[in-house]
From TrEMBL:
Alphabetized Gene3D superfamilies for the sequence: alpha/beta hydrolase
GO molecular function: hydrolase activity
Keywords: Hydrolase
Protein's UniProt keywords contain Translocase: no
The keyword Transmembrane appears for this protein: no
UniProt name for this protein: Alpha/beta hydrolase
Limits of the BD-FAE-like domain: 62-151
Coiled-coil regions listed in the entry: none
Amino acid sequence: MSDPQTDVEYNVRNTVSPELFDEIIGEYLARSERAVQGLRGFTDIYYDPHSQQKLDVWGVTDDPRPVFIAIHGGYWRALSRHHTAFMARTLDSEGIATVTVDYGLAPETTLEEIVRQVRAAVAWVYHHGAGHGLDPDRIVVGGSSAGGHLTGAVMVPGWQRALGLPETVVRGAMPISGLFDLRPLVDSFANEWLELDIERAHALSPLLLVDGPGPAAVIAVADRDGAGFLTQTHRFHDAWAEHSPCTLLVVPDRNHYDIFLDLADSTTALNRALVGMINGLAEQRSPAG
């Protein structure tokens, strides 16, 4: 049985009407399709032989570009990379490439495996990105909701060496309306598909794995978000800021779902923060290896 109060704090579907939810999710896909039309890129790349998951690369030129790896949300059980390319044309105009990533969905795929897959996607960009117009020394990762949690999972230390990566492979990060301490979800409706216990939730919680310096980060949340997401965003920002450059961005007049679309609009604070972070990366490059 789930805890009713926990369900209230973490069930963000109840923060918008069903009609608005359907409209925004439809915009994810429609805007993504329009954004990539005519953009130079590479599609349907198998980035992980084990899972056969795919990624797409958008907005490349003959010169290596910094890259934004966009990770979709959907409470780890819905959506795809095809819903997550809506910022590609706007970033292309700023000289930034976009990589959109699929991962296996719960409950068929465990959360440990989802995290492993997303880390494998980062490894693919580092090891193979140079052959696809990407600069492996200017990788920024971001995502919304479940994608915010998965962004946190690549921000923390301890996993890079096993994939042949430097600790600094992720140079910048933008988790948006994410969850960073999964222990409350053990007593929530979401555990119907996550099937977590406290020990596994602890091991999968970026907030509990912060251990020294990491990438610069903009940690963002909608001001109309769910209570649990707002609280966790503030907690993760405070923990990350103890060791690393970090900005907290609470976006006014946005909800849990439409905040992500701000990345496609060059006039928004979220887009400007992302572009500013990427433009601020050091230009020095080391061999991708």
